[in-house]
Amino acid sequence: MPPTLTYPGVYIQEIPSPVHTIAAVPTAVAAFVGRAIRGEVNTATRIHSFADFERSFGGLWSQSEMGYAVQQYFLNGGADAFVVRVITQAVLAAFNAAPPVINLPGLGGALSIAPNNPGLWFTNAGNVALKVDSNTRLVGVPPATVPGEFNLTFVLTETDPVSGAATVTTESFRNVSVDPASPTFVTTVLRNDSNFIVTSGVVPAQAPTPNPPNNPYTFAGQGAGATSDGAALVEADLTNAALLVNKQGIFALENADIFTLMILPPHSPNEGAAQIDLDPTGTIWSEALSYCQKRRAMLLIDPPSDWTTKDKAYTALTAAVPPASVVRDPNSAMYFPWLYFGDPMLKGRPRPFAPSGAMAGVMATIDSKRGVWKAAAGEEAKVLGTQGPVYVLSDPENGDLNPLGVDCVRTFPIIGTVVWGARTLFGADIQASEWKYLPVRRTALFIEESLYRGTNWVVFEPNDEPLWSQIRLNVGAFMRSLFRQGAFQGATPKEAYFVKCDSDTTTQNDIDNGIVNILVGFAPLKPAEFVVIKISQIAGNIQT
Predict the structure, then answer these.
(1) Model confidence over 16-31: pLDDT tens digits?
(2) Which tens digit of pLDDT belongs to each residue from 513-529?
(3) Can you say whether residue 512 is alpha, beta or left, with left for phi > 0 and alpha for psi between -120 and 50 degrees?
(4) Which of 355, 373, 391 corresponds to the end of one domain?
(5) Are 468 and 506 in contact (CB under 8 A)?
(6) pTM value?
(7) CATH assignment at residue 274
């Protein structure tokens, strides 16, 4: 609004800039959904390192592959991820109905402590110790006990059933109080600061009695038959209508701001008696793909564990009814074969692992160095920490799988193990899709998400030429910045992209219906998948 002119002089008026900067969204935020030994259930927890995963979810666990996939993601360059811990619905219901408790005796009643989430960590007798000490302060000699206050120490000893490896985790809370008015009220302190325990029931008026030396309090109901999450996952634990409504399973990612890569690791290791429900099956892949389409993310699908040779993979891929995991879509990709990594839980002995976690890390590395439009493949796309693929592919064998839309992982002398394919599962030659190549699809999703978030300011603005010119200015500036980074084909911006928003794209009928149409086109960079070198002998000094 112009200022009210009431006196002779100079008036200053600030005019809003028409520039609304469109920020580029991240391109390699991985989302892992699977089993963990502990941690919050059906919650999308953001982590930035494997150390974060260890703190929140207990680290590696021999009964689940998710921890290994997360470790391989960060090992290969990943920097940002969400983790959703999933357990069986029956176990979750049993835990919510009657969680185990520790009753701490006190003069005014019993203070009860319960686990804050289901997990194996409270089911094995003797692995949990809860120590209570009186809280004392130096008020004269001897120190005086402070009424209503006490010190609480939680000690967790976790022993892996396969490897026998044990970790000890300790949490200490000093000066906690049973007084609800105290800033250190025990319920508030544990709810905000503890990764393991919360108070259960009514907090008594007096502090609990200190436990005798070397005789800590333990959970009631521990041992055989106690509620745990050791049960095998089934399809309904990851995807169904109820989970969508309640934001559970893969739909817990509704609370994640953005993710661009989804990984569903095998539920259990690929060997020994511990093998259970190894490969996600049934409608899990198709439901996950539908959700990825909605969120503009890629689904990285692991090949079935029984694809141990090229011939087995080729037979399955070309079958009249392929496996449920072969979900051909522009938003899906598959890497073959599985890879050997050393297993720290087995003293470093190599064993096969599904490749998706490592592949997501390689994508993150290439994205940060070159941009999402560069294929995460070739000599630059090295897989770190691996002892090589489970099956060594030859060039002709690679040539059998590549036209089927499967990306191969190869090992070459001196170079090492690298990603040697850059297609979506929709990139089989027979489909002749415009989304044949993974970097092209990921670039499109990146642009879509960036423009979706960067044009929210347009909503409810007057729908006329001034708005359209602002849209062209801001979207054009974003596309030009990508052009200058080398994201598109073409020697000039006009050859590389276009942005249209005018009376041609938005008619009067659109205006009457509250619609503004923005048309954006770009010339994508496509990887040089086949390099052809033509060689010919010259005729020497023959005179003509």
Answers:
(1) 888 889 999 999 999 9
(2) 999 999 999 999 999 87
(3) alpha
(4) 373
(5) yes
(6) 0.90
(7) 3.40.50.11780
